[in-house]
Amino acid sequence: MFDDMDRDILAILQENARTSNAEIARKVGLAPSAVFERIRKLEERGVIAGYAVQVDPRAADLGLLAFIFVRSDDDHGEDAAADVLAALPEVQEVHQVAGEDCFLVKVRVRDTEALGALLRDRVKCIPSVRATRTTIVLNTVKETARLPLGDDAHAVQS
Prior knowledge:
Blueprint: H1 4-15, H2 21-28, H3 32-44, E1 64-72, H4 80-87, E2 91-96, E3 103-109, H5 112-123, E4 129-136
Antiparallel strand pairs: 1-3, 1-4, 2-3
């Protein structure tokens, strides 16, 4: 998949995707042109799927985080409810799960009133949705999109 040098470059980019090729090169001991080429190849192979800005949800007035377990009548492998859930702007993630429920949905909304409206007016109106259970997050200890890329010994220090 990728070697230790790629792993080091990916660790730096996961920490800050705006790190310059020159700075990455300094940290990993390569020429900037070699770093550029490695990043380009990682992008071409789909290892690097994209770059995104992380907006503070509170700054966007979306301070309430909740997880909704959704039970659906969709046949196994049918994605009708999942597609509708994924299209809702408040929904950040939709996961098909094993167990009594079919989906675990991560949502961010302004407050409990907005959460109630989302559940009542849009989630429970999906024809195949039979039940929901909602958990409101009181405090987030850790939330990251970073992936553990193997042995922590490969982590590059500044």
